[in-house]
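Exercise 3.2. Students should predict the tertiary structure of the chain below and write it as structure tokens, then compare their answer with the key that follows.

Predict this chain's 3D structure.
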Amino acid sequence: MLMARIAGIVLALTLLVGTLPAAAQGPNPAVTHQGNNIYLVDGTKTAIPNLLPAAEVAKIAALQRLPPGTNYIIQSPVSPDDQSVAVGTAAGGGFLSLSDGSSVPFKLPPTFAPLSNPFWIDNETLGYYGITVPELKPALLGIDRRSSEARVVSALPSGIGYPVFTSANGRKVLFASAPVTTAALTAPAPGFRAAPELPTLPYHLGIQNTPADSRARALAEFAAMFDPIPAGASSQKVFTIASSLSVVDIATGETRPVGTIPAGSTPSQLSFSQDGGKFAITVESLAPDRDRGFDGSLFSELGYRDVTGNLPPAQNPWLQGNQLITLDFASGEVKTLRAADGDGSLFFGVSWSPDNQTLAVTMQLPARAEGRSHPQYYPDLRAGAYLRLLDADLKEIRRLERIELSDRDLIASFVSPDELIIESHYRLDRSPWYYNLRSGELRKIADRPGNFGGDLGVVATNRSREIVFPFSSYTDPVDFYRMKWDGTAFTRLTWTTEAGRQLSRTAQHPVAFTLRDGSTHTGVLILPADVAFPPKNVPIIVWQEGGPRSKVTNQFVANIESPFALLPNFGFGLLVVPLYGREGIGTERFDALADNKNFGQIDIDAMNEIVGQLRAKGWASKVGLTGCSYGGYFTTQSVARHPTTYDAAHAMCSLVDSFTEWNRGWATDMAVLEGLPPQAAAEEYAKDSPAYNAGRIRTPLLAFHGTADFLPVTVMENFMLQVINNKVPAKLLKFQDAPHGFSRIPPYELYGAQEQISWFRTYLMGQ
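Answer key:
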């Protein structure tokens, strides 16, 4: 039956190919030539005619419709009987059967706002603590996994605050309360600005699925207790807690105060032990600077002083405000550890063992760029992490320090009194590991490259010693899977993306390059499935991620910004190698991009040398280059610094002027990368800016830029005019109303893919 369904889907895709329009002939009404090889693409008023044959357009559209791995998440623990787990996909929430992969959709009712993490009330019922709407009364909601029926199971006592986090059995609940009067709840707090997207806190703390009128009242009350970060400072719209915390035993009413979390702080991670006997929370200070949006660097701001290494640790708010707080419920004892009293690392993740005896703590490491006087604690600059194991008295038992487990977002979760499942991003892969505290055994569970767990991670079953997770890789569209803790029995649970799997025909191959300085850089070469490895004289395109302080993740994406499943399906090889300034490759290489005067050179020059090896090995006939955002900077800076290395390039959403970015960009970006203001390093800023080196470019260059991009389109147009006026084959497409990136506007992705493929076919294949 399964193969019959797959065959039917593939047949439907085949039939779809025949129904799409052929390549456009004649003038394109949605693409206006503004002169000098600069075009305005406006898909807001009329459809954009296709450039490629109908069959190819159909394949691009089908690949781009496949969901990215981030759209598949595990939303709950596994049910006590190991039969079900709540999951989320682009289609919505559902209960996934772990026996046959079937699912039952569910939706939270609009009359209830969930605030806590979900837990299982019994084998059949998933629970959330939250508030009823519009009454704003604390309550427990239950959802039946068989019928999807949702109902309020019980009301909670009023007057003790909001239930924001719970133990696995639901008995111990963390409440947050604020010293506000009833009158203060009728209107937003001073300065409160409701975001277009509903605000959320870590672990589902937020108002979701509520009617607009009820939402306004609820937001007003939450504004009295939670001060939102000013607009623009966080895409997650996270609230800072300015309230008192206490843990309540729902069965007995016993209450234990945890303490008051000061305004300007937010919880990083929270953990109850299995029975709720122990509680832990890590608290993080948020950016203390007034948010000015994209208005450049300011010498007096603490953020600027931190990233340039000019803020002593004793004055650093991120270090001084970071703390670990624990509660022993039986005795009511509260203990606090301050990061400022330790070795300079920061408390982040926490997990209590089921027997209440051991606390696993993820410790984040600050950046330590060479040439700076002090470490950098700005959140985006955390260079890595390690795992500390503490006893019940918070005395260190041991540390686990390995480069494979140095992801700054490292997750460690106890699954028995002596066993942990650890999740870490290393190089390109997010992988689960097994660690035995008693024996010291550490082994990788993942049996293949890829992204295990998506954004929210894996969950462990209760008795079968398995994990459940979404999985994706450069060659595998996302679906849900399960496997044993010993790394065996990798089993697929859902087949929702099988049609795309059959349509996409690519293979990924691990590669490594040792450079003249002795450094070795590993990555992946994605090739068409019918191309043998190592390849011979294949057109290869080098891709670079945005950021740069971000992960490079092995997952299935077919958009123009991350064309892992796009370009290799149309005859090109795609080379992915994380170099410097990336998470998951060790603290030294993370820091190296900002060391001294490295920016604009160290990763650019390393890739130049790698491309030389591609040619020397005979792998590449011609070599292209592409990327978006920082990837666009990498592309334009590479063809300016190394004019003869690449045969064609495609830059998107590019930063090309370091001076403009320092003055009108995000407050810390150029400050951290350069370490000095342009007034003190004008020559360096100019050297590191493609806009001031455009005269060196000889590589055919295609560029995309949105008219609504926060990186000014005028700056990009001026840069491209220089290239075009120098008689270099070049073209700029300005996309009307597009922001930073094009994934929010599917017609631009579809048309952009055709332009991207056509450009590289012209200059790498001679077509």
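Discussion points: The chain is about 20% helix and 35% strand. The first strand starts at residue 31 and ends at 33.
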